[in-house]
Amino acid sequence: MFYTEMGDQSMTIKLIATDLDGTLLDDHGDYDRSRFARVYAALRQQGITFAVASGHFAREIAPLFEQYPDIWLIGSNGAELAKATGEVALKTFSTQTLTQIRQALAAYDELQVVLCSDQAVYTTENHSPRIAARLRESYPQLNMVAQLADVTAPIIRVDLHCTPGQTAQCAYELKPKLAGIATPVAMASDMLSLVQPGVHKGTALRALGHRLNVSPAEMLAFGDGTNDLEMLHAVKNAVAVHNAPKNVQANAATVTGTNNDGGVLRYLEQHFLA
């Protein structure tokens, strides 16, 4: 078993999880493949499981790590827990909850609503050609339907596309209207995702730990954004990258380098390759 030092505390690590965008991935959406291969091989030799967590679908992040079938994928901000081998666990909305969400969104004609399953996404046919083209660019598996009530696939999240810069206002208005049934999470300046209450990267990481018989004290997590805070809180050993906002850094036990200078890999090299 591997032991290392973090601050003044000794820790035994069996599971390491990292956010992707802005954390492990650089600003071009990639990572140092050869450097990662060396680090990953060393971690596996020590019996340490590695997981990546993202707001993206698991099927979207899987190609980044197709060489590593043992890596766990936490997708859709915790709604998906999967492996490249095909093993998957989903947190889906009930039919009743989706009806309540549609009713709450009926007053927002300016929002483009997209229902997302783990394999495909759905929106209505009544979008303008410009908006439809933009949605097809964002979602290669986009399906057009007459009405969202016709969708029978299990839905793991609901995406809302709005005017750029309006996500904060939309989230502020929708939060009380969706209380208890869905939580708005900002994904970009023009997009929100509605996820199930209590479903986030932290709950998915805890579920993975339970599956692997790993306690929070034996987990290490890296993050850079507010949607990583639950994951950082779910583990005893939390690390923020230096490009993270100050409030995220304040929720971590230590800070490593930035995503562009390989801060996550540098930390792992220093603590697990020595």
UniProtKB/TrEMBL annotation:
Spans traversing the lipid bilayer: none
E.C. number: 3.1.3.-
InterPro entries: HAD-like_sf, HAD-SF_hydro_IIB, HAD_sf
Record GO terms (molecular function): hydrolase activity
Pfam family, one: Hydrolase_3
CDD domains (UniProt xref): HAD_YbiV-Like (cd07518)
Keyword annotations from UniProtKB, A to Z: Hydrolase
Cross-referenced PANTHER family: 5-AMINO-6-(5-PHOSPHO-D-RIBITYLAMINO)URACIL PHOSPHATASE YBJI-RELATED, PHOSPHOSERINE PHOSPHATASE
Record's protein name: Cof-type HAD-IIB family hydrolase
UniProt source species: Lactiplantibacillus modestisalitolerans
Lineage, uppermost ranks: Bacteria, Bacillati, Bacillota, Bacilli, Lactobacillales
